């Protein structure tokens, strides 16, 4: 969810986590069902609203 919330694509998430694209899609679909949200935008909003991300100071 963190990677979705910071704007990563499914392909970028798969590469970063060393999993297949279909695995990413499966996990995001499961997250949508568990959170009761409709899409990745709402997953990202949930992550931000529930403290799953911190704003890092810019260098």
Structure, explained:
The longest helix is centred in the middle third of the chain and has 15 residues, at 21-35. The mean pLDDT is 88. The chain is built from four helices and no strands. It is flat and about 30 Å long. The relative contact order is 0.20. Helix 2 packs across helix 3 (21-35). Helix content is 63%, strand content 0%. By secondary structure, the chain is mostly helical.
In short:
The chain is mostly helical and 59 residues long. It has helices spanning 2-5, 10-17, 21-35, 40-49. Helix 2 (10-17) crosses helix 3.
Write the layout of secondary structure elements.
Layout: H1 2-5, H2 10-17, H3 21-35, H4 40-49
Helix pairs in contact: 2-3, 3-4
Backbone structural class: mainly alpha
pLDDT < 50 stretches: none
- What profile does the largest beta sheet have? none
Number of strands: 0
User: Helices and strands, in N-to-C order?
Assistant: HHHH
Report the β-strand fraction as a percent range. under 5%
- Considering DSSP H and I runs of 4 or more, what fraction of the residues is helical? 55-70%
Q: Output the radius of gyration.
A: 12 Å
Q: Could you give the distance between the termini?
A: 25 Å
Q: Mean pLDDT across all residues, rounded?
A: 88
**Backbone shape:** flat
Provide a count of the helices: 4
